[in-house]
Amino acid sequence: MSKTHDVMSVGTALVDSIIRGFDPTPVSAAGYRAASGTLNVGGEAVNTALAAAKLGARAGILCALGRDAAGDLVEETLRRGGVDVDAVVRPGDHSTPVTTMFVADDGSRRSITNGAHRRNFHPERYLGCLTGARAVLLGSLFRAPFDDPEIVLAVARAAHDSGALVFADTKLPNFRRLSLADLSRALPLLEYVTPNEDEARFYAPAASPEAMADRFLELGVKNVIVKLGPGGCLLKNAEATVRLPACRVRAVDATGAGDNFLAGFVCELLRGSPPEQALRFANACGAVCVTAAGANTALRSRDQVLALLAEQESL
Fold this sequence. Notes:
The strands form three sheets. The chain has an eight-stranded mixed sheet, sandwiched between helices. It has 315 residues and is α/β, with parallel strands linked by helices. It has eight helices and 14 strands.
């Protein structure tokens, strides 16, 4: 069957209010200052879909947005970014989540969520949207809507049975806590799982990233990529282990770096690149992302990423 999308991203869509250079010293009874404040669309599904489209993929998204100004901003940004929004769900009783993020000078961040982030839309009711995709990205396990084992299983099974490669990022829990064992029926359906080091340690406590990855593999995941921030990344499966150093760039904001990484990895695999080459490309996508504030600001094209890779090789 002909595939209509290279990538279908499923999961969270929101707006990030990003505050950089926050000064905790009040300037009045109820006033504070910061270096800057910006509104950026975000959420794992939005970030991966936009990045995939910029990299030349036919990208679609299945997500829920409120009938509100924040939802309008997200949908319009997706359209302008070349993402197919036909599967966007906008129920009248759903508010678009807005996250407040405080970003430090080194690019690290802290976020504030609210009740709208807990709202669990039901992608399992729209499984027909997945049948035309070469790859389906679940963003992210352990966060709504993928903090319900039955929803994870239904979506992963439908994507897998349609012939798509199934990828899943992870997040630390915020409202509902699950373990890896809770997702044991779905994990063998996943081609790749991509936790960062803190997430891998939380769900698979061990002394090294390699040992953390082994726990995922033991439960049936075919490949595990552990993102190590300044330490680069690790790819592990039953046959091989690959470690790559991080690209050397000036970090401004780490928001969305993992999502850009995942989109880059998937897009290169779909182009036919071997996993290690795709991993190098993904590494560079994440590095490009952190050079500007916002998850979808810095990355512009595949050529831009290839240029960074060439520059890094010459250092």
